[in-house]
Design a protein that fits this description.
The chain is an alpha/beta fold. Helix content is about 40%, strand content about 10%. It has two domains: about 20-50 and about 310-455, Alpha-Beta Complex (Aspartate Aminotransferase, domain 1); about 60-310, Aspartate Aminotransferase, domain 2. The longest helix has 20 residues, at about 310-330. It is globular, with a radius of gyration of 21 Å.
Length: about 450
């Protein structure tokens, strides 16, 4: 059998500056140890996020040139709407400029003060939008997700028993049930079709909506095809259609599995919710047939959604993530296993067991990887968990992770080799790092984007 390779060839390149460690130590200090404050040309390999950072295809660029910029009734909107309906079966579409905008619009309809929103490890913006409305995000992820060495094929699954217990005691106060697929906060882990089906039964039992955060729906479908019994012979698109048939609505950051640089949408089955959300979409985003996107971006998104649901693309995409994971394991680096669909997640508590949680071992690792190789990545731990909205104490999640999110179709495996070697080098000297960082400035919500830090002991 021949080895697999990327189902595309490179047409254009972007030069990268290879900085010295001395330069990087100056730059990260000037950035107040916040990786978001770095300039892009100070970064050699950018694993900060896979959101909007992928490479578009020639067909997507061609679609951009044919975009219709009409304010109302845009041809590009109707092309996107048709594509979303074909893939998901959802009748109603509201375009937004990105995923958190979709959350803002939909949650303005669904979430009220004091309500509960249970789900599988809500991501930062999702939790932020819930807590901004003085509601509570309740984590019902399975316990296996919090053991990074445990080989469970669907660590993104909802703990159905825990969800059922919550519904028994508090159903009247539950806004809706949310499933993020794949589950980013748990390590890019997939959710099985059977688990979604069980969540659907609970939603029906208690008369609640079941909503999907569909940012990485195609990668989740790939894992269902390759890991779940009974789906090996099914096409990705048939799995996607079955998956969405179990939900009442979806929010999507199209910057992930839409393979575009900007864009998002809300897709719904219920006309009444669509009408209520339409008012907020016009207020926050724009008219219903553009909603914060240019026509050219909607045209590129429609094409990107088609490409993202092709098996060959997904196999190449997920295989590159696994390639990086295997290389890092070869250096002894502790990572979340099995590997997820869009990123490798390092277990920072095992990487830096000597650093106290209050000194942010995840962020300490983020800084060290930047110093070591010019690699920018993200902390998915205590900084991102924010403070408890009532007590204002730091929240310490079960996992302290560092995410290396791989942009789609942007880097080669040579870049993965380099990144793994840099992480391995940092791991070899990890015991020399005895202290972490303290906050000197933070916003009241979603602080990790703009916070400032200083080394403990300064």
């Amino acid at each position: 059998m021949l080895p697999s390779c990327e189902p595309y060839k490179i047409k254009m390149i972007e030069p990268l500056y290879r900085s010295s460690r001395e330069e990087r130590e100056i730059w990260i200090r000037e950035a107040r140890y916040n990786i978001f404050n770095l300039k892009s040309d100070q970064v050699f390999i950018d694993f900060l996020t896979d959101s909007g950072t992928g490479a578009m295809s020639d067909r997507q660029w061609a679609a951009i040139m044919s975009g219709d910029e009409s304010y109302a009734g845009s041809r590009s909107f109707h092309g996107l709407k048709d594509t979303v309906k074909e893939l998901t079966g959802f009748e109603y579409l509201l375009p937004t400029h990105q995923g958190r905008a979709a959350e803002n619009v939909l949650f303005s309809v669904l979430v009220k003060e004091g309500q509960l929103v249970p789900g599988n490890a809500h991501f930062d913006t999702t939790k932020g939008h819930i807590e901004f409305r003085k509601a509570i995000a309740v984590d019902c992820t399975i316990d296996e997700a919090y053991d990074t060495s445990k080989p469970h094929p669907f660590k993104g699954n909802v703990n159905i028993n825990k969800l059922d217990e919550l519904m028994k005691s508090s159903a009247d106060n539950v806004s809706f049930i949310l499933i993020t697929a794949t589950c980013n906060t748990a390590g890019g882990q997939p959710v099985s079709m059977e688990n979604i089906r069980q969540a659907r039964k609970l939603a029906d039992k208690y008369g609640k909506l079941l909503i999907i955060d569909a940012a990485r729906f195609a990668e989740n479908a790939y894992f269902i095809k390759t890991r779940e019994e009974g789906y090996q012979t099914k096409s990705i698109r048939s799995i996607v259609l079955e998956m969405f048939s179990l939900f009442d609505g979806a929010t999507m950051s199209a910057k992930k599995d839409g393979i575009v640089n900007i864009g998002g949408f809300i897709a719904l089955k219920d006309k009444k919710i669509y009408q209520e959300a339409s008012t907020f979409n016009i207020m926050f985003e724009g008219f219903l047939t553009y909603g914060g996107q240019a026509g050219r971006d909607m045209a590129a998104l429609a094409q990107g959604l088609k490409e993202a649901t092709e098996f060959d693309y997904l196999e190449s995409r997920v295989s590159q993530v696994a390639y990086l994971g295997e290389k890092m394991k070869g250096y002894g680096v502790p990572v979340q296993e099995p590997f997820g669909g869009h990123a490798i997640f390092i277990d920072a508590l095992k990487f830096f067991p000597q650093i106290p949680r209050e000194e942010f071992p995840g962020q300490t690792l983020v800084v060290e990887l930047y110093k070591a190789g010019g690699i920018r990545c993200a902390e998915i731990g205590s900084l991102m968990a924010d403070r408890d909205p009532i007590t204002r104490e730091n929240r310490y999640p079960a996992l302290e992770l560092v995410r290396l999110a791989i942009p789609r179709r942007a880097y080669t495996n040579n870049h993965m080799d380099y990144a793994a070697a840099a992480v391995g080098q940092a791991f070899e000297s990890a015991q020399k790092i005895l202290r972490g960082y303290r906050l000197t400035s933070e916003a009241p919500i979603m602080r990790h984007f703009t916070m400032e830090l200083e080394p403990v002991g300064n």
